[in-house]
Amino acid sequence: MPRPTTSTHDDTVDANRPRQVVVIGGVAGGMSAATRLRRLDESAEIIVLERSGHVSYANCGLPYFVGGVIEDEDDLLLQTPQKLYERFRLDVRVDSEVVDIDPSARTVTVRSTVDGSTTEIAFDKLVLSPGAVSVRPPIPGFERVRSLRTVEDAERLAGDVSSRPQTAVVIGAGFIGLETAENLSRSGIEVTVVEAAAQVLTPLDPELAVLVEAELLANGVGVVTGAAVTEVTDTAVILVDGRVLPADLVVGSIGVRPDTRLAVMAGLTIGAQGGIAVDGSGRTSNPDIYAVGDAVEKTDSVSGGSSLVALANVANRQGRRVADHIAGLDRPSVPSLGTAIVKVFSRTAAMTGWNEARLRAVGRPYRCIHAHPWNHATYYPGAEQMTLKLLFDPLDGTILGAQAVGGSGVDKRIDILATAMSAGTQAPALADLELAYAPPFSSAKDPVNMLGYMSENILSGECDVVEATEVESLVAAGWTLLDVRTLDEFRAGSIPGAVHAPLDDLRRDLPTLGPGPFLVFCQVGQRGHTATELLHESGLEARNLDGGLATWRAAEAARTASARSLVRPAS
């Protein structure tokens, strides 16, 4: 039963005694709180309790250790208890699991995971950083499925890989799932990724997710979407539709949920999203107990409501804020954007803010634009194309979210867009950002600047764009599809039923095109915009296809993805 959270503690009692702060859980949030507090308060007694054998490690690097990219396990260990004591005088106790919290007595009971002995530790302030736990559904045979959350998990999985399995199934196509799939594949294993949703990487919108799926396929990783796992046997994974996937090794990456066991034990309030409820300073419903990291609900930057964001940088930021508050510093809280990035072979996928699915679910009005720019000047060797998507408010241009898939330079652009969101920069103002330019790094008009120009055109009414999902209905209503690319491009493939009129010949061809209205497109949207403006100046009704043929093709691929069976590259 949860204990009441009321406290009769008086901070003026024993004023001469050093304050004792107990931190439960290390890694990002807990260790940030402990080390920051030491820098602010040399006299405090700070005890860190960690149930695993490692208190500070790079959990985001675990898949790369499994795949051998990171060869030495010690490289994952950022700090040891001894080093933390030497530098910060922190009393760090690993293999120490908290099994009870008594808020009234202001004590925690700790059990040694080595010998089972228990001790009781008093606290003046308590910081909870228990993290999240992997979702492990009640599927028959799931006990065989490996997780990848801790160093110990990585050691076990690396041991499995060293035994040279022939086949592996990764259940779940989120960030860790795709990183694990890549690293298992690089180890010479035939890998299939299974995702119950209709696409990989659900934070992305479908027309960008298919680009990530294509990268998996191009590198020999099989993909199953829209199919749940119903059983795991000794040799295979069985799907809901009866398909059997051979699996010498199975890794589960279905997702995580906040570890609120200790919070419930202490009688703390749990929020609507299932995480620990905290205020802007990280305090729980008990003013002497704080909480940080994956177990905690965050304030969402778009809605202002609560959300669950399991990211190390957010946990680090929260740990710092909690330490500040304990030390008597008043720092403003910052909402979370949920900015994230993942490497999938030679592609990078990144996102910040909300996607279309979330905006539609709450009925939030929005506009979106797609661009397919190059990461730097095309005349400089090695230019790579990327896909960018921007979501913004149709009235004031407030940026609601952004996504990117491509090679080099994706991280730079998503970080600029996340910074713009944090600063309250409106979409058209992206055009005026003065960004670093030299041919090896960007173009004179950076891809982010181009998003600004595009959104400005839409919000000003200068350009009316059509989403890829609208094409079919507009054609059925009598709109003429007008392909303004070159003849060679047109012959290589176009939208079925399109009329061809190259942009450079459009003025000449106008009398032969008919009265319209015209749905104009090129490869990525830029020439289409010019052609649409020309048609407007000629008194004709025309709209430009957002993102051009490239976006339409991706949207079409996404539309059929949920009905597709196992997709594996041809041998």
Your description of this structure?
The chain is α/β, with parallel strands linked by helices. The protein folds into four domains: 20-132 and 257-326, FAD/NAD(P)-binding domain; 142-254, FAD/NAD(P)-binding domain; 346-459, 3-Layer(bba) Sandwich (FAD/NAD(P)-binding domain); 465-559, Rhodanese-like domain (Oxidized Rhodanese, domain 1, 3-Layer(aba) Sandwich), CATH 3.40.250.10. 28% of the residues lie in helices and 23% in strands. The chain contains 16 helices and 31 strands. Helix 1 packs parallel to helix 8 and helix 6 crosses helix 16. The longest helix is centred in the middle third of the chain and has 15 residues, at 312-326. It is globular, with a radius of gyration of 27 Å. The model is unreliable at 1-13 (pLDDT under 50).
Summarize the structure.
The chain has 571 residues and is α/β, with parallel strands linked by helices.
CATH C-level name of the largest domain: Alpha Beta
Could you tell me how far the N terminus lies from the C terminus, measured between alpha carbons in angstroms? 58 Å
Low-confidence stretches: 1-13
- Please bin the fraction of helical residues: 25-40%
Helix segment tally: 16
Mean pLDDT: 91
Quaternary form: single chain
Strand content: 15-25%
Spatial ordering of strands, largest sheet: 5-2-1-9-19
Estimate the global geometry from the Cα principal axes.
globular
Task: Supply Rg.
Answer: 27 Å
Main sheet makeup: 5 strands, parallel
| CATH topology descriptor of the largest domain | FAD/NAD(P)-binding domain
CATH architecture descriptor of the largest domain: 3-Layer(bba) Sandwich
Q: How many domain units?
A: 4
Name given to the CATH homologous superfamily of the largest domain: FAD/NAD(P)-binding domain
Number of strands: 31
Pairing-aware structural class of the strands and helices?
alpha/beta
